[in-house]
Amino acid sequence: MIFLIKVFVTVFGIGYIRIAPGTFGSLFAILVWYISINYLNIYFFYIIIIIVFICSFKAINIYLRKENKDDPSEVVVDEFIGQSLPLIFLLQFNVYEVLLAFSSFRLFDIFKIYPVNKVENIKGANGVIMDDVVAGIYSLIIIMFYKIILFLNA
Known about the structure:
Radius of gyration: 15 Å
Oligomer: single chain
Strand content: under 5%
Order of helices and strands: HHHHHHH
Number of domains: 1
Helix content: over 70%
Largest sheet: none
Shape: globular
Number of strands: 0
């Protein structure tokens, strides 16, 4: 059972990449989104996000207790969740929008702009997950402003 939890929280081992595992976790979210919108259905992506979000709380708490760590870098399922948030409003591939979603999420996640830094201090899975959710919401707001500006200038 612990093997499956490790696979889940490290997103199939992506978290064990030595350099920038969070970035690769974010890129995996973009890959899943891309496959969903082009070959499956955006609703498949929504369902994946909901399932991963719900399961991640229990799985991360189990992993944290087993490894006796607060926020290990190999846990990247939280980056997958956070990066997915701005993608939910992108219904087709546009390289500029995807780059904006990716770069803004990574900036908010890395630099922990308020209140991301406060949420990160929450103990357990709640802090691990929710700081990325807040960073994802910030990135989503950036995407929405971008789309509004495009609409107003059209």
